[in-house]
Amino acid sequence: MEQKKTVVVTGFEPFGEYTVNASWVAVQENVFLKLFYTEAQKQKEMQSAIPNSCSILNHPCVPQLVVHVGVSGIASSVTLEQCAHNQGYQREDNCCYCPRTHCCVEGGPDCIPSVLQMHELMSRVDQSALGVAVSVSEDAGRYLCDYTYYLSLYEGAGRSVFVHVPPLGKPYSAEELARALRALILEMLELLETQTGPKSC
């Protein structure tokens, strides 16, 4: 019998102008598929939450991959982030928190890539059939998304992915974003079988 694969998928709570966060809505839509375990991402809890999620990656009965989903006000497509950055964090989050050293991990690498090759992942998804455009980025910003992604990659030996989605209705519905997310995660799991290490930043 084929072993079931499990993915930890996280979304963010509302913040700023986003009274409904498209990332969390898209994640919640997938709960009904019973494919993914989901958790609401709180603003200042990353330093403890990320290690707890990633410490179980090597256990045979728990997630093989951690996928974080966040909203981007400038995105018009579902955006796959290739890497995360350690330095340059200046903005406070919802809890008025900003790292004192303006970095994620003191002494950590400047940039950490995912073990998954995002351009290859993008090419594996039939965007016309999906009805949702997919793109690749190498800069997730210097806010909570990039911060979360860096910690996740650092603790999980690169076995993490960050996906940015546009705000709801700009132009995609929750159902469309959820469908794209599900298709991408299934492809991630397939691709993970063939990828053994990250590319350089």
TrEMBL record:
Check the record and name the SUPFAM superfamilies matching this protein.
Pyrrolidone carboxyl peptidase (pyroglutamate aminopeptidase)
Q: Which UniProt keywords apply?
A: Cytoplasm, Hydrolase, Protease, Thiol protease
* UniProt-annotated catalytic positions: 145
Per its record, what are the GO molecular function terms?
pyroglutamyl-peptidase activity
Q: InterPro entries recorded for this chain? A: Peptidase_C15 (IPR000816), Peptidase_C15-like (IPR016125), Peptidase_C15-like_sf (IPR036440), PGPEP1_Cys_AS (IPR033694)
Query: For this protein, what is the EC number?
Result: 3.4.19.3
Alphabetical GO biological process terms: proteolysis
- Provide the top EC class: hydrolase
Per the record's keyword annotation, is Metal-binding included, yes or no? no
GO CC term, one of those recorded: cytosol
Substrates-to-products reaction catalysed: Release of an N-terminal pyroglutamyl group from a polypeptide, the second amino acid generally not being Pro
Organism domain of life? Eukaryota
Its family remark reads:
Belongs to the peptidase C15 family.
**What is the protein's given name?**
Pyroglutamyl-peptidase I
